[in-house]
Write a structure and sequence with these properties.
The complex is a heterodimer of chains A (about 450) and B (about 450).
Chain A lengths: L7 E8 L11 H16 L8 E5 L7 H6 L9 E5 L4 H14 L5 E8 L18 H12 L10 H17 L3 H15 L13 H6 L18 E9 H6 L7 E9 L4 H4 L3 H4 L2 H14 L11 E5 L5 H10 L8 H7 L9 E2 L4 H5 L3 H17 L20 E8 L3 E8 L11 H5 L12 H7 L6 H4 L5
Parallel strand pairs in A: 2-3, 2-4, 7-8, 7-9
Antiparallel strand pairs in A: 1-5, 1-6, 4-5, 6-10, 9-10
Helix pairs in contact in A: 1-17, 3-15, 5-12, 6-12, 11-12, 12-13
Chain B lengths: L7 E8 L11 H16 L8 E5 L7 H6 L9 E5 L4 H14 L5 E8 L18 H12 L10 H17 L3 H15 L13 H6 L18 E9 H6 L7 E9 L4 H4 L3 H4 L2 H14 L11 E5 L5 H10 L8 H6 L10 E2 L4 H5 L3 H17 L20 E8 L3 E8 L11 H5 L12 H7 L6 H4 L5
Parallel strand pairs in B: 2-3, 2-4, 7-8, 7-9
Antiparallel strand pairs in B: 1-5, 1-6, 4-5, 6-10, 9-10
Classes of the chains: A alpha/beta (about 450), B alpha/beta (about 450).
Pfam family, one (chain A): Thiolase_C_1
GO molecular function, one term (chain A): acyltransferase activity, transferring groups other than amino-acyl groups
Protein name (chain A): Thiolase N-terminal domain-containing protein
């Protein structure tokens, strides 16, 4: 795919709390909250949105419309999308490409999920699951490892085997997984949106119940309910709406799917999409103008897909943040947290903040946008703008769903960024980067379309 | 959304038989069949595809990848999309936009469905269905009808009420619905892909078991299993691959969602998307360069969404094929079949050929493309090219899903169309416009990517 097209910017972002699934909130209400916050943040109404992409894995078709219709029935194209755990960034990818291509000035990407507690299972018992293919490949890969038969539910087991492969090839160990998990849990203490804020230590992580041979419970992301929303716009739109004080550029973005090595290589790391991430990162950095393998030093802050700390470990390498085989050394050096080379998962990552499948990828972009705006308060990565170039360092997002697809984004302050005048924090009335509040009907009324339906809106439960 | 962008063309199409749901074929195998046929038709391999949109309503996320990976693991973006009954054309809308915008030269839209038999119902009992609110609006609208309470399952009942509203306002009766149904069933006798080949007469339609006050069973689309595929490409691609003998231009295409009347008007016709279709049709004719209300005379052949004969009746009007209140006259004049002004649903429509949700919209474009190529054999609408303009008449597609979304397309032979051999019929070895055959392993071998996985392909059941 060609990478040409206009510049695009995230101009508004909103997130709900990610919570343990208790069926307390419906996706249409969580979606309404996230979208309302994003619109308030951007200082626009729903009338400015020309197309919407709504990502979720569980639920009947047209759940996207059900959520957005509370904001208005403006007749715009609305498409429901999914790609397992990379659903949220799949929605953003579409919104972004539409604006990039000049087909719209402003597009909205919304993602939400209402999940069942416990491990992921198939909801379609009457047919073979698409994941059956991957399970077969995972079995073959497990047989190739030196640790013998593993145990545990299929998702953590696959990623645990990927970590096992890394340990056997490069000498990392479970201690590194625990350090990653503990680092994420420590980060989450600063994040009011986060499902967990326990800040578990390495010892506590290691002492938690064993899920597989390698992973304990605190190294695993939970299932969650939640929603997140990003609004993408053109430069014209940014200028017209005076959003130079908060627009964050999507400098580059790519989506990749599996190559044959996922199924043919016998490697547990590839079964978990290591090569898919590597190819996506390569594409993304190339799109941003870097020569192969370059550009990683210009990244300051990262949100990546730690569904299990095992995946965070191997993803450092897949993204090129370190050389192959060096990921555990990066952990030991502390180059994945405050004071180190990169701050990785300042939000607490999936392990701590939760993982509502449709929302996660959009949440990642929310957090990175806030970092690059420098609104992130206690989560703020320091030194992002102690650079000769006023645009500062890049933010990097990596979101993966097995089955599968990876989306990577490189975000950065645009050269015209100028923190002056009222911004989203004033419009919301608080800094939603690190304060989590619900929305009220008053908020919705500020952003809803002129073509709204009282009949639909009266059903909303904020 | 802006309508500007490059010209785009459907260059390859494929279709499986639509069958009563018996769970005999998996979606990945049906998808492989449809996609293989489309690639053969276009004379390209899967390596030429730069992005894919896969539409289906029922099944786990990444079922799209599961189907396409049999053709290759080329790493291209793959998005799973849905919009209830307009899922198939939603996938095409995505693919078309990518090519139109200049982001790719060639994109694939695949759609499939494996359904349960019987009426549509929610698959997610643990949460309110997104269609609850439209169901409530429908119930309120029904109260406004002088004919009193209706009966029957939700979906046919909603559409039956719309027909009833039409009768109350304009005249016409259940006889007209029966004529529409019988017309579609007569058409389907000529389509080997169709689920039904019974060719029921008006009397037989009226004598079938009653489903609502207005509709009998033979006026209702069945549930079905099946798949369909369309490949969209740029003009540059058409010329580079010598496809001037079969490329059909997507002159214009639009997607609309509901406006407030769906919920606020208490009109049964509006509840089932009459206004949504009208807005969409107005958009596509405008995009094609026509003044408001104009252009319908230049249409020769139509595939529209007769989920129930009731919807076909009101859709004639919504599309502007007749004036308000004249839909039943159009039926009486025979202007919806061979020998009349338009041939509507030469395929047999949803009533005659079936309705696998994810495939239907793509199937419609398959049939219209074949009509405009002049390949449709016994289904061929006559006189499409007895016109001063060598491009001949337009084909019109309308695909609607409640919840909701409508996609309309205006297709036409391009100015450079030049019939010549060999074309897709030679590559497949038969005229797949009106002959339905399975694909063989040799067919898949001709079109699969160089980057394929033998272990995945080995699982395919053709």
């Amino acid at each position: 795919m060609s990478s040409y097209g206009r510049r695009t910017f995230i101009i508004g972002a909103g997130c709900t709390a990610f919570i343990k699934p208790r069926r307390q909130r419906h996706v249409e209400d969580m979606g309404l909250e996230a979208a309302t916050k994003a619109l308030l943040d951007a200082g626009i109404t729903y009338d400015a949105v020309e197309a919407a992409y709504v990502g979720y894995c569980y639920g009947d078709s047209t759940s996207g419309q059900r959520a957005l219709y509370s904001l208005g029935l403006t007749g715009i194209p609305v498409t429901n999308v999914n790609n397992n755990c990379s659903t949220g960034s799949t929605a953003l990818y579409q919104a972004n490409t539409l604006v990039k291509a000049g087909a719209a000035e402003c597009a909205l990407a919304l993602g939400f999920e209402q999940m069942a507690p416990g491990s992921l299972t198939s909801h379609w018992p009457d047919r073979p699951a698409p994941g059956a293919l991957l399970n077969d490949a995972a079995r073959v890969a497990e047989d190739g490892l030196g640790a013998g038969e593993n145990f545990g539910p299929y998702a953590p087991r696959m990623f645990a085997n990927a970590a096992q492969e890394h340990m056997e090839r490069y000498g990392s160990d479970v201690g590194h997984l625990a350090k990653i998990a503990s680092k994420n849990h420590r980060h989450s203490v600063n994040n009011p949106y986060s499902q967990f804020r326990d800040g578990w230590s390495v010892e506590q992580v290691l002492g938690a119940p064993q899920v597989t041979k390698q992973l304990t419970r605190y190294m695993c992301s939970p299932t969650s309910d939640g929603a997140a929303c990003c609004i993408v716009a053109s430069e014209l739109f940014v200028r017209a709406h005076h959003l130079e004080n908060q627009a964050i550029e999507i400098v580059a973005q790519a989506m990749t799917t599996d190559d044959p090595s996922t199924f043919e290589s016998g490697s547990a790391m590839n079964v978990c999409g290591y090569n898919m991430t590597r190819a996506c990162a390569a594409k993304t950095f190339a799109q941003a103008g870097f020569a192969p393998d370059e550009g990683r030093d210009q990244v300051g802050v990262v949100e990546l897909h730690d569904c299990f700390s095992a995946n965070e470990l191997i993803t450092y390498e897949a993204l090129g943040l370190c050389a192959p085989g060096e990921a555990h050394k990066m952990v030991d050096r502390g180059d994945n947290t405050y004071g180190g080379k990169y701050v990785i998962n300042p939000s607490g990552g999936l392990e701590a903040k939760g993982h509502p499948l449709g929302a996660t990828g959009l949440g990642m972009h929310f957090y990175i946008a806030m970092q690059l705006r420098e609104w992130a308060g206690p989560m703020q990565a320091p030194g992002l703008f102690d650079t000769p170039d006023k645009r500062g360092k890049f933010g990097l997002v990596q979101n993966i769903g097995l089955g599968g697809a990876v989306v990577c984004s490189l975000l950065r302050r645009p050269e015209f960024f100028e923190p002056a005048g009222p911004d989203g924090r004033d419009r919301l009335g608080y800094n939603h980067a690190f304060e989590c509040r619900r929305v009220t009907m008053e908020d919705v009324n500020k952003v809803k379309s002129r073509k709204s339906s009282p009949y639909v809106l009266q059903a909303a439960r904020l | 959304m802006s309508a500007r962008g490059r010209r785009t063309f459907i260059v390859g199409v494929g279709h499986t038989a639509f069958t009563k749901p018996r769970g005999e074929k998996n979606v990945e195998d049906m998808g492989l069949e449809a996609a293989t046929k489309a690639l053969l038709d276009a004379g390209i391999t899967y390596d030429a595809i730069e992005a894919a949109y896969v539409g289906y309503c029922y099944g786990e996320s990444t079922t799209g990848q599961r189907a396409l990976y049999a053709l290759g693991l080329t790493g291209i973006p793959i998005l799973n999309v849905n919009n209830n009954c307009s899922t198939g054309s939603t996938a095409l809308f995505g693919a078309n936009n990518m090519v139109k915008a200049g982001l790719v030269e060639c994109a694939m839209a695949l759609g499939f469905e494996q359904m349960a038999s019987g009426s549509l119902k929610s698959h997610w009992p643990d949460r309110p269905s997104p269609s609850l609110i439209i169901g409530a609006a429908s119930a309120e609208a029904e109260e406004g009808l002088p004919s009193g309470d209706n009966f029957g399952p939700v979906a046919p009942r909603m559409f039956a009420n719309a027909a009833q509203e039409y009768f109350d306002k304009h005249g016409g009766s259940v006889e007209h619905l029966a004529k529409i149904a019988a017309k579609n069933h007569k058409h389907s006798v000529n389509s080997p892909y169709a689920q039904f080949h019974d060719g029921w007469s008006v009397e037989q339609v009226l004598g079938a078991p009653r489903v609502t006050k207005q509709l009998t069973k033979f006026m209702c689309a069945p549930t079905s299993d099946g798949a369909a595929c369309c490949i969209v490409a740029s003009e540059g691609f058409v010329h580079a691959h010598g496809l001037e003998n079969q490329a059909i231009e997507i002159v214009s295409q639009a997607m609309t969602t509901d406006d407030p009347t769906t919920f606020e008007s208490k009109s049964p016709m509006s509840v089932v998307g009459y206004n949504m279709t009208k807005a969409c049709a107005d958009k596509v004719f405008a995009q094609a360069g026509f003044k408001p209300g104009e252009g319908r005379d230049q249409v020769g052949v139509v595939e529209l969404h007769d989920c129930f004969a009731a919807n076909e009746l009101i859709t004639y009007e919504a599309l502007g094929l007749c004036a308000t209140g004249e839909a039943h006259r159009l039926v009486e004049l025979g202007d919806n079949t061979y020998g009349g002004k338009y041939v509507i649903n030469p395929s047999g429509g949803l009533e005659g050929k079936g309705h696998p949700l994810g495939a239907t919209g793509l199937g419609m474009h398959f049939y219209i493309a074949m009509q405009l190529r002049g390949w449709a054999g016994p289904m061929q609408a006559p006189g499409l090219f007895d016109a001063p303009d060598r491009r001949g008449k337009y084909g019109l597609v309308q695909n609607i899903g409640l919840g909701g979304a409508v996609v309309c397309s205006l297709l036409r032979r391009p100015d450079f169309f030049q019939a010549s051999r060999p074309d897709g019929r030679d590559r497949l070895g038969y005229n797949h416009a009106h002959e339905c055959r399975a694909v063989a392993a040799e067919d898949v071998d001709k079109v699969k990517s160089a980057k394929h996985s033998p272990s995945i392909l080995g699982l395919a059941k053709l």
